[in-house]
UniProtKB/TrEMBL annotation:
<keyword id="KW-0720">Serine protease</keyword>
<feature type="compositionally biased region" description="Polar residues">
    <location>
        <begin position="328"/>
        <end position="344"/>
    </location>
</feature>
<feature type="signal peptide">
    <location>
        <begin position="1"/>
        <end position="15"/>
    </location>
</feature>
<keyword id="KW-0378">Hydrolase</keyword>
<dbReference type="InterPro" id="IPR033116">
    <property type="entry name" value="TRYPSIN_SER"/>
</dbReference>
<feature type="region of interest" description="Disordered">
    <location>
        <begin position="325"/>
        <end position="355"/>
    </location>
</feature>
<dbReference type="InterPro" id="IPR043504">
    <property type="entry name" value="Peptidase_S1_PA_chymotrypsin"/>
</dbReference>
<keyword id="KW-0645">Protease</keyword>
<dbReference type="GO" id="GO:0004252">
    <property type="term" value="F:serine-type endopeptidase activity"/>
</dbReference>
<protein>
    <submittedName>
        <fullName>Trypsin-1</fullName>
    </submittedName>
</protein>
<dbReference type="GO" id="GO:0006508">
    <property type="term" value="P:proteolysis"/>
</dbReference>
<keyword id="KW-0812">Transmembrane</keyword>
<feature type="domain" description="Peptidase S1">
    <location>
        <begin position="78"/>
        <end position="311"/>
    </location>
</feature>
<keyword id="KW-0735">Signal-anchor</keyword>
<dbReference type="Pfam" id="PF00089">
    <property type="entry name" value="Trypsin"/>
</dbReference>
<dbReference type="InterPro" id="IPR001254">
    <property type="entry name" value="Trypsin_dom"/>
</dbReference>
<dbReference type="InterPro" id="IPR001314">
    <property type="entry name" value="Peptidase_S1A"/>
</dbReference>
């Protein structure tokens, strides 16, 4: 598991211990346990303030301005295990636990990020922060955008045994303002296997196996394998489920995602030059070892699950021209805001430039 070791350590510190002792009166232990939980929650509330309302079940009707997904910001592209340009990948997000970076994530619309289930499963959602517009973790620029988390949705089929369906949605306490610097990636074409295509993986993960995580956002190009090619590697056919997609240099190794990249994006570029989220960094045997490619969550199998669970957000379309009449009507209508805390509403700036 990429970065799973650190995850399990911090995760354990917060887990409520289950009652196993048969010799102690169960009721006393139970009430002690409840007390401990209650005071822990009191402490959280005192530190973070009251819980944010989760309005996703009965969302306020929002007017969504037109916007495009998957456009990178770059002037000169040379990929091969190197630092990205600042804000080159406008959907790149990081997850922080008690203020420290621990996983990657990807913006998929104006209120949700996608990540790996193993990055959030068992984590108390209120202690996770999502940070966008980060580049150098040691020297955060003024533009960074932080969001608290109102809800984490781990896929119901996620397996901690074989990491099948390693995917989760994170809902922000408030939408982000989309524009050139920050906008979502496109979801992948559902019928594509992406086998043989070149993918780009981005993250702040370790630059080498066992090495320290990176200060600056890195990118690496890796070839996507077919399911059969991946099952013929050292992993064997049982470990690679249909919900996984492998990428890497099987023969020579050398380039791969690594510890700390978990939850981040593996992109492919479509014929319109839009970036699609083909995979989510999930697991691998070591990093960049020959015979052990990186294994990613196959996002195209989850497009419907993502759509069904993010209906309260504004999504962007894929490199489509927006008809002038349509664009005008979205800007002249007053957005309808039912909840007080979103009175300002999600503004979408420079949407016409993105569309
Ligand atoms: C979970 O897996 C089962 C069996 O493969 C499938 O029928 C079901 O649709 C999956 N659940 C979701 C939410 O995708």
């Amino acid at each position: 598991m990429r970065y799973i070791c650190l995850l399990s350590v911090v995760g354990l510190a917060l887990a409520t211990p289950s009652l196993r002792s048969a010799s102690e009166p169960a009721k006393i232990l139970e009430s002690l346990n409840t007390l401990r939980q209650n005071s822990f929650l009191d402490w959280i509330v005192s530190v973070l303030g009251p819980d944010y309302p989760d309005t996703s079940a009965s969302p306020a009707k929002r007017e969504c301005p037109a916007c495009g997904c998957g456009n990178i910001n770059t002037r000169h592209r040379i990929v091969g295990g190197q630092e990205t340009e600042v804000h080159e990948y406008p959907w790149m997000a990081m997850l922080m636990w008690f203020g420290s970076f621990y996983c990657g994530a990807t913006l998929v619309n104006d209120q949700y990020a996608l990540t790996a289930a193993h990055c959030v499963n068992g984590f108390y959602h209120r202690l996770i922060t999502v940070r966008l517009l980060e580049h150098n973790r040691q020297d955060s620029n003024v533009k960074i955008v932080d969001r608290r988390v109102t809800r984490v949705l781990v896929h119901p089929n996620y397996s901690t045994v074989n990491f099948d369906s390693d995917i989760a949605l994170i809902r922000f306490n408030e939408p982000v303002r989309l524009g050139i610097d920050m906008h979502p990636v496109c979801l992948p074409t559902p019928t594509e296997t992406f086998a043989g295509q070149t993918a780009v993986v981005t993250g702040w993960g370790a630059l080498s196996e066992g090495g320290p995580i990176s200060d600056t956002l890195q990118e690496v190009e890796v070839p996507v394998l077919s399911q059969q090619e991946c099952r013929e590697t050292s992993y064997g056919s049982e470990k690679i489920t249909d919900n996984m997609i492998c990428a890497g240099y099987v023969e020579q190794g050398g380039k791969d995602s690594c510890q700390g990249d978990s939850g981040g994006p593996m992109h492919v570029i479509d014929e319109k030059q839009s970036y699609q989220l083909a995979g989510i960094v999930s697991w691998g045997e070591g990093c960049a070892k020959p015979g052990s490619p990186g294994v990613y969550t196959r996002v195209s199998n989850f497009n419907e699950w993502i759509a069904a669970n993010t209906r309260d957000s504004c999504a962007c379309s894929q490199a489509e021209e927006v008809a002038p009449a349509e664009a005008a009507s979205t800007t002249t209508e007053q957005p309808e805001m039912a909840t007080a805390q979103t009175s300002e509403g999600p503004e979408v700036v420079e949407a016409e430039l993105l569309a």
